Every structure is written in structure tokens, then in C-alpha cells.
Amino acid sequence: MPSTRAIVKVLLVTAATAAVLYLLYLVRSILGLVFISIFLAVAMGPGVDLYQKRARMPRGVAILFVYLTILGAIVGLGLLVVPPIVTGVNHFVGKVPTYVQDLRKNPTVRKYDNKYHVTEKLNKEAKKLPNRLGDAASALTSVTVGVFSAIFQLVTVLVLTFFFLLDGKRMVEWGLRQLPAERAERTRSVMGDVYQATSGYVVGNLIISVIAGTGTYIVLMILSVPFAVPLSVLMAFLDLIPLVGATIGGVGIGIVAAIADFPTALIVWAIYFIVYQQIENNILQPVIYRRTVALHPLVVLIAVLIGGSQLGVLGALIAIPVAAGLQILVKDWWRARKQRSGATEGPPASDVAPEAS
After folding, report:
1. Can you give the C-alpha Rg of the chain in angstroms?
2. C-alpha–C-alpha distance, residues 256 and 63, integer Å
3. What is the H or E stretch that residue 155 is in?
4. Cα 113 to Cα 111: distance, rounded to the nearest angstrom
5. Is 88:227 a contact under the CB 8 Å cutoff?
6. CA-to-CA distance for 302 and 242, rounded, in angstroms?
7. Separation in Å, CA 143 to CA 71, 313, 326
8. Residue 189 near residue 331, CB atoms below 8 Å
9. Quick check: 218 and 231 in contact, CB under 8 A?
10. Which residues in the chain land under pLDDT 70?
11. Cα-to-chain-centroid distance, residue 254
């Protein structure tokens, strides 16, 4: 029979655990922001270290320079992408009536048009396009206003990331000093492996995406496919998403190429895309990711599905480095467990020297 003291202790521990879990549930949104901030701090760490060491600037200034670099990249991409899209859409709207009239030149289309008056209906809808674009602009304005409601979260993440980048190492070192020397050294080694794997993956993924976007731009310019810049940026962004991103981008660009010049542009793009994917998978990724942790494709798929279901595109992007970090932790735990098991069992009987007679 357990004693009353043991029963009370179990009840108190259970109640305290339930209270902590409930508290974590209540602040889950804040914990999500903290988690994202930690991930961004790890991802930006190499850039901050580079500015700090090469330019010999204080760490706080180096962090601000990284922020400005990212902001400049976003603004630059916007200037590259938005004007061609606006110009192309306006050009398309102005040409729609001409496209509709061109349909009449096809005998089959003309036959059904005479029967069902398709061209007349398309012309009426084409005349309404400018008004509908105006309505779409109004809807976009409403969405933009809604986006401003998330500015607080963005600012919070940026501020948290700043402090993690500024004092994260000191925080970690303070925590490690509270541990026994042997455990502190082991924890420091594991955290270093996790940091190296995560930052290496993020930097490598960005490099590969830039290569994918640049190659796409060159091919589309050679083929004279419209919207080469926006499509290249889209390809670079989608290439960040593991497993399916590049395929989605390749299929989408293939559709645009087929519309622009069928079948020449489509065939050339398909050949390029297949060859590039082989180069990326068999040459670029092994070379660029050589310092990161290799994950089984099944683990990658499961991680991406879980991350995407919880945080959307952002979750899919951070799923692989998180899975790599968890793999490092599990391997360290398993290695330590085997070492403890071996120490408990002792040396084999054959290794024990016989006693002198």
C-alpha cells in the first residue's frame, strides 16, 4: 500500500504538470512567435557573424545591416516583379477584344459561335474587365488593410530575433554554466551541431534557389517567354519549398511557355528543367549541404506535411531544419543510452584477467 505522502506527491506532480500544460496552451500563439524568432536568429546567424568579423562592426550594428540587406532584397524583388506584371495585365486587358475577334478565324470556333454567340458574350465580358479590375483593386486594398493588423506580430518577431541574435550566445552559455561540466560539454556539442545543420540548410537552400531562379531567367529570355522576371522569382521562391516546390514552379512555367510558343518553347523548357533537376539533386545539393544532416526522404515528407499543416508555407520551409535538429537530439540520446548500457553491463568475461594462484 502506498503511503499517504506518496499519493499526495503524485497528485501534486500531476496537478502541476496539468497546470503547466494548460498555461502553455493559453500562450501557444506567443510560443509560436518565440519559436519563429529563434529559427530566424539561427538562420541569420551566419550573416551577422560575417558582417561582424569581416567589417569589424559591433554585433548590434551587424544585425541591423542584415535586416537592411533582407529589406533591400524584398524591395528589389518587388521592383523587379510588380511593374512587369502590371504592364502585362494592362496589355492583356487591352488586347482581349482582339483575341476574341481572332477566334472567329478558326472554322470550328466560327461554326459554334454562329450557333451559340460565344464571341458576342466574350466581347461583353471583355468590356467589363476594366471595371472588374477596379473592383479587384478595391478588394486588394481591403486585404492590405487586413495585413496591417499583423504588423504587431511582425514587429514582435523582429524584436525577439534581434535580441536572440544579440544575446543568444550569452543566454546559452549562462544556461550551460548551471549544468555539471560533463553534461554542459555534451549539451554544447549538440547545440553546436543543431546550429550548424540549421544555418547550413537555410543558407544552402537560399543559394540553390538563387541558382534555380537565375537559370530560369536565362532560359526564358532565350525563348522570349513573357514575364521572364516574375516567373524566375516565382521559381526561386518555390524552389525553397522541399519536394514539391520546384515541380510546381516547373509545371507552371511550362504552361506559360506552351502558350507563348507551342511546342518549341515547351520542349526546350521541359528538357532544361529535367536536366537542371538532375544537376541540383545530384551535384548542387550534395556539395552545398555537405555540412548539414542527411534526412531520409520519408522523414522529409512527413516533416513538410506536418509543418505545412501547422504554419502553411512557413512551416514547410522550416520543417526540414527542425527535423534535422530533432534527429541530432535523438542520435545523441541514443548514443548516450548505449554508453550507459555498456557501462552498466561491464566488460565481457573474456576480458577479465584470471586471478593469480
Report:
1. 29
2. 40
3. helix 151-177
4. 5
5. yes
6. 11
7. 22, 19, 37
8. no
9. no
10. 1-2, 88-149, 291-294, 343-357
11. 23
φ/ψ bin of 243: left (φ > 0), alpha (ψ from -120 to 50), beta (otherwise):
left
Cβ 123 vs Cβ 100: under 8 Å? yes
Task: Check if the beta carbon of residue 45 is closer than 8 Å to that of residue 195.
Answer: yes
Sign, CA dihedral 294-298-299-303, equals: positive
User: Grid coordinates standing for 144?
Assistant: 492590405
* Helix (H/G/I), strand (E/B), else coil: 295: coil
Place of cell 506552351: 258
CA end-to-end distance (rounded Å), the chain? 51
- Percent of the residues in the chain that have a pLDDT greater than 90, as a whole number: 17
- φ and ψ at 3, to 5 degrees? -75, 160
What does the alpha-carbon distance between residue 236 and residue 217 come to, in Å, rounded to a whole number? 10
**Cell numbers placing 78:** 518587388
- How far, in Å, CA of 10 to CA of 202, rounded? 44
Residue 86 one-letter amino acid? V
Closest by Cα among 39, 49, 36 to 202: 39
Instruction: Tell me the per-residue pLDDT of 188-210, one tens digit each, with 9 for 90 and over.
Output: 888 888 888 888 888 888 899 99
Over 208-271, what HEC string results? HHHHHHHHHHHHHHHHCCCCHHHHHHHHHHHHCCCCCHHHHHHHHHHHHHHHHCCCHHHHHHHH
* Alpha-carbon gap, residue 236 to 253, rounded angstroms: 12
What single-letter DSSP state applies at residue 351? G
pLDDT computed for residue 64 by the predictor: 93
For the record, the C-alpha cell of 80 comes out as: 523587379
Cα distance between residue 38 and residue 40, in whole Å: 5
